[in-house]
C-alpha cells in the first residue's frame, strides 16, 4: 500500500527525520502533552541513521500510536537487507553505510536479528504518502521529500493508490520544491504565498528530507526537518 489514509481520534503530532534521536522525540512529545492512548504521531520518514538509537526508533513501528512514511534512509536499509537483486542490494548497502548506517554493523547478534525482523515486517510496509483527517476536519498530507504534482496537475485527489518506481524515487529524494522555498525565503518572501504552490484537494502538506533552520512554508506545503541529530531541535507540529 503506497498511500495510507488515517482518521484521527485524538490530536495529531507530525515530525520528521528522527534519525535515531529517540530521547529527543520522547522529550518533545512529553513537553507537548502527547497522549499515546488517543493521540497519534506521524513521521515524515528517515527514522534511522546518524543519531544514537536507530534500532529503538524502529521498534516504535510496533506501537499503535506511531506511523511513518518511507524516507530515503529507511529505503536504503530495506534494499540493503531484502532486495532480491544482489547488485542492487550491495549498492544499497554501500550507500547505507556511507550515509549513517554503520550502527547496524555495530549491533550485537540479538539486536541485529530484531532489526532484520523490523525491516522485513514493518519498514517494508511503510507507505510513501499518508493522508490524515483531523478531529477538526482538516485533511493533511505527509511525504518525505516532495510529490510529483506535475504528473497529477497539482491536485491531491489525483494521486493514485499505487505509485510507480520513479514516483517513489521522486517522493523520497527530490529537493526541487525545497530549493525553491529556500531561494524565495531569502530573495522574494512574498512569492512563498503564491497560488502556484498551492495544492488543490488538501489543506496542508508536510515534508522532511531537506533541512532548514526553521520550518518553511511555500503555498500550502511546509518543510519541517530542522536537522535534529545535529541541532538537537526536533520540530513537531500539533494538529487538533
Topology:
Elements lengths: L2 E5 L4 E4 L6 H10 L8 E4 L10 H5 L7 E3 L3 H11 L3 H13 L3 H4 L3 H13 L7 E5 L5 E4 L22 H9 L2 H12 L16 E4 L8 E3 L2 E3 L4 H4 L5 E3 L1
Parallel strand pairs: 1-5, 2-3, 3-4, 6-7, 7-9
Antiparallel strand pairs: 2-10, 5-6, 8-9
Write up what this structure looks like.
With 240 residues, the chain is α/β, with parallel strands linked by helices. It has one domain (3-239): 4-Layer Sandwich (Purple Acid Phosphatase, chain A, domain 2), CATH 3.60.21.10. The protein is built from 9 helices and 10 strands. The chain has a 6-stranded mixed beta sheet, covered by helices on one side. The chain has a 4-stranded mixed beta sheet with strand order 4-3-2-10, with no helix packed on it. The model has no long low-confidence stretch (mean pLDDT 97).
Amino acid at each position: 500500500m503506497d498511500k495510507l489514509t488515517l482518521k484521527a481520534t485524538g490530536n495529531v503530532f507530525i515530525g520528521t527525520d528522527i534519525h535515531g534521536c529517540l530521547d529527543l522525540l520522547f522529550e518533545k512529545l512529553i513537553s507537548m502533552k502527547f497522549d499515546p492512548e488517543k493521540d497519534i504521531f506521524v513521521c515524515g520518514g528517515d527514522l534511522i541513521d546518524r543519531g544514537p538509537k536507530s534500532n529503538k526508533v524502529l521498534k516504535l513501528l510496533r506501537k499503535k500510536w506511531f506511523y511513518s512514511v518511507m524516507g530515503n534512509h529507511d529505503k536504503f536499509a530495506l534494499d540493503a537487507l531484502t532486495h532480491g537483486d544482489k547488485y542492487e542490494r550491495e549498492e544499497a548497502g554501500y550507500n547505507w553505510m556511507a550515509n549513517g548506517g554503520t550502527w547496524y554493523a555495530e549491533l550485537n547478534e540479538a539486536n541485529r536479528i530484531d532489526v532484520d525482523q523490523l525491516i522485513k515486517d514493518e519498514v517494508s510496509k511503510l507507505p510513501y504518502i499518508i493522508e490524515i483527517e483531523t478531529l477538526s476536519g482538516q485533511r493533511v498530507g505527509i511525504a518525505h521529500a516532495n510529490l510529483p504534482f506535475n504528473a497529477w496537475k497539482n491536485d491531491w485527489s489525483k494521486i493514485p493508490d499505487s505509485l510507480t518506481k520513479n514516483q517513489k524515487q521522486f517522493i523520497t529524494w527530490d529537493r526541487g520544491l525545497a530549493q525553491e522555498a529556500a531561494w524565495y525565503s531569502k530573495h522574494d518572501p512574498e512569492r512563498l504565498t503564491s497560488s502556484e504552490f498551492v495544492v488543490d484537494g488538501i489543506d496542508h502538506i508536510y515534508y522532511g528530507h531537506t533541512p532548514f533552520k526553521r520550518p518553511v512554508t511555500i503555498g500550502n506545503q511546509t518543510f519541517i526537518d530542522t536537522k535534529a541529530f545535529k541541532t538537537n531541535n526536533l520540530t513537531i507540529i500539533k494538529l487538533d
